[in-house]
Amino acid sequence: MKTPVWHFASSIAVLVLLSPSLMAEVRVVEDFGEENGHTLYKMTVTPAAEPTPALKHRLQLRAHELKPGNAATYYLRVNAENWLSGAWKGVRKEFGEAVDEWYGIDFPLSELPLDKVRKAASRFNGIVSYFIAPASYRLDCDWGYNLMELRGSDVYALPLPGVQQSRSISRMLALRTRLAIAEGRYDDAIDHMRMNYRLARNVGKAPIFVCSLVGIAEAGVASQTVLDLIAAPDSPNLYWALTELPRPLVDMREAIRLEMSIGKRIFSSLTDVESTEHSPEEWARLIADELEEADELEEYESSFTGSLFKGVSLANQDLLRAMATAGLSMLVYPDAKQRLIQAGMDAEHVEGIPVGQVVLIDAAREYQRIADETEKWLYIPYPLAKKQMRRTEDELSGKRNQLQGGLGPIIADILLPATRFARRVQIRLEWKMAALRVIEALRMHAAETGKLPASLDEIEVVPVPLNPITTKPYLYHLDGETAVLELPFSDGISGVAYRYEITLAEP
Known about the structure:
- By secondary structure, this protein is of the alpha/beta class.
- The protein has 2 domains: about 280 residues, no CATH class; about 150 residues, no CATH class.
- It is built from 19 helices and 7 strands.
- Helix 2 packs antiparallel against helix 6, helix 7 runs antiparallel to helix 8 and helix 8 runs antiparallel to helix 9.
């Protein structure tokens, strides 16, 4: 049987497409300019006009494509029955640790050992077909955590194996996406990106900050593969596909609302403290219990804060522990009593309340005041809120270090920095994703004019996204034939900056 002529032609076309010398791609330089945290993406891209129709390529499903069902059951089943972990174990046994480089953008597409990557990716075929793809079509995702029923240490020590293991799903999808891009199967690559973004949103739906952070990390993995596709030869323009995605991609509002109520669920003595009656000795014991709980919580939350007594002198540390164990609440009692009286509580009534109860009433009120002060700014767009959030954080830290404000600021300073940290992680994702849309606007402009613009103002074919942190245009200039898009340290995202150097591939 003769092989058709078109088969030879298509094979030659694929070889030309995949030739390293001709392949447009991304090259990553970490700590660019010897600045820690500054990442450079060097990209050679081809011009790409708006698709016809404009949303020919989509990174999320439309409403009529979704089906009833719970996506979490699919994700959990993959992990519970060890299909995914078994597949990864087999891949790593055969190919070693190298496989953990293949799914990341740091490893150039032109250097992928395609035969090995194909074999590795094929081990996940059934997992994608029977679990991950169907999960992405489900209307709902409920992980079944019953969060409002949890109290004490169960609130922050809740095991989240399904959510943590979802990272392996995201990496597997990234591996398969990058293979599809390297082979020129762009529609398949977009399908896998869509699954990855859907996974990120489904994981982030659980109103827990850990889930939000994992979802944001997975969205970041998906976005790195989008950058790979943008830099691939003759790839479709994803400007409108990226624009269609929800903003924020991982919505943290419910996690924020739940987190703001967490103090009184962890520290149970703060609930109904004003109407509860105990002996002075029992109030002292409750304070000791709450400080011990705080110490355990802070150890658990060590990625956000340090020791309960950080910044406090050793003498004061000893005094605090003595207060907890021996009932010496008089350390904070005078100020606590004064705050309650100033807030309108009858002075004679306050004098008749046990010292420990006064301290805990004040702690509950101060914690709630600080929590509300933090929460209200989380509902304001980040550019308007970031200065006030920083001011509140600095004020809280100062009070804690000087043991001002009683126990409320100590508890708040353990719990609330995680809230502000998570908000910064969320805006960092939006910062980078809007930059992807800017790059696609550049490619669309180049398709229309044959060149990169000298300034973003020259782009008229589509609206150019503003920097979501500054609400101003991204920093951009043309350096010879290279477009330079900057996401600088001065934007204020905690020690990270990005630079994209974009050149057009030769026709």
